[in-house]
């Protein structure tokens, strides 16, 4: 919906340029009800809510409704390039589908979609109506985590792990100690890879190897590289 | 409560705008304040404008002829001969010059799509044309006829008067009546929607020819 006939001109120019890179799409039909003797003599326009007012109610997510279906975000998305349209499980594939489908039909039905992104931001760069897709993706991830937390008496393993990570990372001493402890993992590595992590991290290595922790942390390396020359200390 | 009321009430709730409960009246957040600070017109001299229009049409693989009112009949005859079109459909309100012998122009009599398909092509006037995008616009006026006649036969010959050509799309928008049935055509019908593969003749004719009539 656009406010006026005049405003249609903006979108007639935006759409083909963002969609296929053409100056104008080859054919555009504009209908205003029926025209006697020309085309259908009965015309019905049905407006469906279809979850859109729920999207509108979400202050971060509502910008999704600005989408003009140009497909620029699909064509530029590295994830879409790899997985293709069917992987998104709805008629809206690509980055816009990853934020629209969870909002229209519920995050639970599309739980993997907000995560199907590297958050590289290419979609936001090309969007002609400036939908900040990466921010909406992060917002939906948070909503998914909150929804998963609700109705559980015990937190999930993921939540426990994240809470532990948060505690460790909040303190320099704890973080350094954790890095030192992680170096023990070098002992179980073979050719630089760990094939199987112990619980609660076992899920991570089900489908991939884990590189062994580095022999030296970045801080240790920095200290070594920037050790004051003897006598240089003033 | 009708479905309409229900949807509108959900919209009010969604944007935190409940009339009668201390909220403001429901208005579009941008109603009346849409900035129109983009390119709305471009001044070009008539010759430059028509050159741009003809160039863009050709770029879209349309055939372009430029002629004067006195040479129009000859130009149409030449176009139809080269196309090999002998029997074409025309809108009842199109004022055509006398066509060369051997060409039959049949006024549209509400032909069915199957009947229209037997014609070698269609000749129509246009409502407006946009130079920058190489677009011609039909609006169903008497000299342009029903949408079907411009869509079914596989060859469309449009006659554009120089005064109908504007530079930019927003200029055309102000010239057009939104309550007319419009068809905007930019080159022969084609789509690259599916996997960027170009397919021609999807929405309308595969061959578009435009005659631009310039004052002599």
Comma- or semicolon-separated keywords:
heterodimer; A: about 230 residues; mainly alpha; Fumarate Reductase Iron-sulfur Protein, Chain B, domain 2; 2 domains; two-stranded antiparallel sheet; 3 strands; elongated; B: about 220 residues; alpha/beta; Rossmann fold; six-stranded parallel beta sheet; four-stranded mixed beta sheet; 6 helices
Protein model, in words:
The complex is a heterodimer of chains A (234) and B (216). Chain A has 234 residues and is mostly helical. Chain A folds into 2 domains: 5-24 and 43-149, Fumarate Reductase Iron-sulfur Protein, Chain B, domain 2, CATH 1.10.1060; 171-225, no CATH class. Chain A has 10 helices and 3 strands, in the order αβααααααααββα. In chain A, strands 2-3 form a two-stranded antiparallel ribbon. In chain A, α5 (94-105) runs parallel beside α7 (133-149). The longest helix of chain A is centred in the middle third of the chain and has 17 residues, at 133-149. Chain A is elongated, with a radius of gyration of 26 Å. The termini of chain A are far apart. Chain B is α/β, with parallel strands linked by helices. Chain B has 2 domains: 1-34, no CATH class; 46-213, 3-Layer(aba) Sandwich (Rossmann fold), CATH 3.40.50. Helix content of chain B is 25%, strand content 23%. Chain B is built from 6 helices and 12 strands. In chain B, the strands form 3 sheets. In chain B, strands 1-12-7-4-2-3 form a 6-stranded parallel sheet, sandwiched between helices. The longest helix of chain B has 14 residues, at 46-59. The A-B interface holds A 3-10, 12-13, 20, 22-33, 35, 37-39, 47, 49, 53-54, 56-57, 62 and B 6-7, 10-11, 13-15, 28, 30-31, 34, 36, 38, 56, 60, 110, 130, 132-135, 140, 146-148, 169-170, 173-174, 178-193, 196, 202-204. β1 (27-30) of chain A pairs antiparallel with β9 (182-185) of chain B, so a sheet runs across the interface.
């Amino acid at each position: 919906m656009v406010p006026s006939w005049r405003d249609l001109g903006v979108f007639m120019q935006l759409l083909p340029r963002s969609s296929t890179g053409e100056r104008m799409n080859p054919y555009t039909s504009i209908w205003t009800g029926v025209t006697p003797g020309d085309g259908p003599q009965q015309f019905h326009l049905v407006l469906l809510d279809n979850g859109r007012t729920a999207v509108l109610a979400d202050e971060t997510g509502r910008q999704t409704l600005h989408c003009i279906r140009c497909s620029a975000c699909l064509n530029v998305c590295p994830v879409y390039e790899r997985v293709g349209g069917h992987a998104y499980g709805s008629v809206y594939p690509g980055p816009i589908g990853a934020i629209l489908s969870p909002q229209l039909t519920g995050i639970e039905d599309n739980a993997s979609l907000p995560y199907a992104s590297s958050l590289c931001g290419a979609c936001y760069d090309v969007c002609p109506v400036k939908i900040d897709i990466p921010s909406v993706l992060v917002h939906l991830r948070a909503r998914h985590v909150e929804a998963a937390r609700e109705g559980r008496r015990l937190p999930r393993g993921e939540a426990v792990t994240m809470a532990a990570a948060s505690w460790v990372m909040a303190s320099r001493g704890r973080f350094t100690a954790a890095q030192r402890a992680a170096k023990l993992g070098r002992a179980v590595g073979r050719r630089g890879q760990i094939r199987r992590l112990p619980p609660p991290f076992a899920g991570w290595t089900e489908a991939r190897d884990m590189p062994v922790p580095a022999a030296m942390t970045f801080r240790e390396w920095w200290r070594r590289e920037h050790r004051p020359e003897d006598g240089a200390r003033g | 409560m009708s479905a309409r009321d229900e949807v509108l009430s959900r919209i009010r709730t969604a944007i935190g705008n409940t009339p009668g409960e201390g909220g403001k009246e429901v208005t579009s957040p941008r109603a009346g304040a849409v900035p129109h600070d983009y390119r709305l017109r471009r001044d070009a001299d008539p010759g430059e404008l028509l050159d741009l229009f003809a160039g863009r049409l050709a770029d879209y693989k349309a055939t372009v002829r430029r002629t004067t009112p006195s040479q129009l009949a000859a130009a149409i005859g030449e176009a139809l001969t080269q196309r090999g079109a002998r029997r074409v459909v025309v809108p009842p309100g199109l004022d055509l010059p006398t066509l060369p012998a051997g060409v039959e122009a049949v006024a549209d009599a509400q032909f069915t799509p199957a009947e229209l398909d037997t014609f070698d092509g269609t000749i129509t006037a246009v409502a407006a044309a946009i130079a920058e995008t190489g677009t011609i616009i039909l609006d169903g006026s008497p000299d342009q006829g029903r949408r079907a006649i411009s869509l079914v036969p596989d060859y469309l010959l449009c006659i554009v008067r120089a005064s109908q050509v504007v530079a930019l799309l927003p200029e055309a928008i102000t010239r057009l009546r939104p309550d007319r049935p419009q068809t905007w055509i930019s080159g022969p019908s084609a789509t690259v929607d599916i996997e960027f593969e170009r397919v021609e003749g999807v929405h309308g004719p595969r061959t578009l020819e435009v005659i631009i009539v310039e004052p002599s």
